[in-house]
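Service request form, structural biology core

Requester: graduate student, group of Dr. S.
Request type: structure prediction, single chain
Budget code: on file
Notes: please return the result as structure tokens.

Sequence provided:
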Amino acid sequence: MVGDMMDYLYNLDLNDSEILDMVKLNDHIAQMSSEEVITYIYILVDVGCTQKQIHDIITANPFYFSRDDIDVRKFLRRLMAFDDIDVPEVLEGNPWLLNKDAFEIDDYLEENRDKGLSDKELSDKEILENFIFNCI
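Core staff response, request fulfilled:
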């Protein structure tokens, strides 16, 4: 099973060192089936990430593989609801965002709504950029 998973990671142009680093940080990866790995990769493909972006995202954030795939999909749907957002670019630059939940965006928006921002202002790219900045 591990061999199949490793082959799939090699197909993403990961080298031995990168894979070992990922497994050292998140030993759950070594126990995953190739089907599980593919599920997480295709979540990123579905939002438009390129192979290089996927490589960069998963090597920077191997904990992504420990997230519940349904929670990740909810978060990405919520992220894509913002106007003029290039989700693959946002994730490539901020791979740790994949450790967040959709409710965290909603909580952030609610805090800003309480500060008097309108719904139009809350759908602005600047609000998302502030959310990202606050997550770092």
